[in-house]
Amino acid sequence: MKRLIKMLLHTSVVLPAPLLLTSIPLLAQDVGSSSSPAYSGLRSSSVYESKSTEIPRFWGSLTGSYLPFKLVKATSQTNATTQEQISSQADNGQAGGGLTLNYRLFHGWWVSVGAIYRFGGYDTTDSVNANTIYLERTRARYLDFPALIRYSGPHFRWSKYSFYEAGATIRRPNDIKRYQIANNGTEYYCCAPPSTTAIHHTVEGVTVGTGVAGKDDFGIIVAPEVRYTYWMGNTFSSPTVSTMKNQLELTVSFGW
């Protein structure tokens, strides 16, 4: 296990820095548990723990979330015939937060459901010619609803505090606000042509993840993890705007 810790400290892909720093106390205890009484401050959700007072059967948490990559994938394109230039740029949406509820079904199997809130959008500029420019700004409040089955049993684990999970996530954009305006080269005026960006109000995704969960002397459960979600559709869709289909997510939960 000491070799594992050394490998993890030098591997940014498996455990990114924020997750690794939160996980070090759990891994350190895991090393010492075989030869001497373990530090009693952090306790595992494992089914092979001798005490049943570790992590309760049902617990809730506040969850912080961060996406290393933006929610929206934005590009640019130019019409070779008319020289019309359309350019989009993603805005915000990487940091979020919400609630997570966990319930142990039996042995090392749990169900974990939650709701994560984010705010983001995109800006699009359509330059028809030197004297006509259309601007479109779209902002939305995203709600992601993950429903996952979590395994924290004694098999196939890289620490007695670790777990794996898999399931589905549904994304619902709400309070979508779109602003459009035109510029004739000297001033902005109303109005721009109707937007060609399609909006999908429900998008499904497939989610897998891994992390660690432990309880300290104050009764606080700490659970950092890494999740990957593949989105099977686009929230916003246009020639220059689409959803980031491959989503990497870092989360940290603090619960009781």
Any chance you could write out the topology, listing elements then pairs?
Elements: H1 2-9, H2 17-32, E1 43-44, E2 58-66, E3 72-74, E4 76-78, E5 85-92, E6 95-106, E7 109-129, E8 132-151, E9 162-183, E10 188-189, E11 198-199, E12 203-212, E13 214-215, E14 221-231, E15 236-237, E16 241-243, E17 246-255
Antiparallel strand pairs: 1-13, 2-6, 2-17, 3-16, 4-5, 5-7, 6-7, 7-8, 8-9, 9-10, 9-12, 11-15, 12-14, 13-14, 14-17
Helix pairs in contact: 1-2
Summarize the structure.
The chain is 9% helix and 55% strand. It is built from two helices and 17 strands.
Characteristics of this structure?
about 260 residues, 8-stranded antiparallel beta barrel, disordered N terminus, mainly beta, 2 helices
Structure description:
- The chain is mainly beta.
- Helix content is 9%, strand content 55%.
- Strands 2-6-7-8-9-12-14-17 form an eight-stranded antiparallel β-barrel. The protein has a two-stranded antiparallel sheet with strand order 3-16.
- The longest helix has 16 residues.
- The chain is elongated, with a radius of gyration of 23 Å.
- The two termini are 28 Å apart.
- The N terminus is likely disordered.
Overall structural class, as computed from helix and strand content, comes to mainly beta
Straight-line distance between termini: 28 Å
Number of strands: 17
Integer average pLDDT: 80
Q: How much helix, percentage-wise, in residues?
A: under 10%
Strand content: over 45%
Number of helices: 2
Strand order of the largest sheet: 2-6-7-8-9-12-14-17
> Which sequence of SSEs, written as H and E, runs from N to C?
HHEEEEEEEEEEEEEEEEE
Q: What global shape is seen? A: elongated
Low-confidence stretches: 1-21, 31-53
Gyration radius from CA atoms, angstroms:
23 Å
Largest sheet: 8 strands, antiparallel, barrel
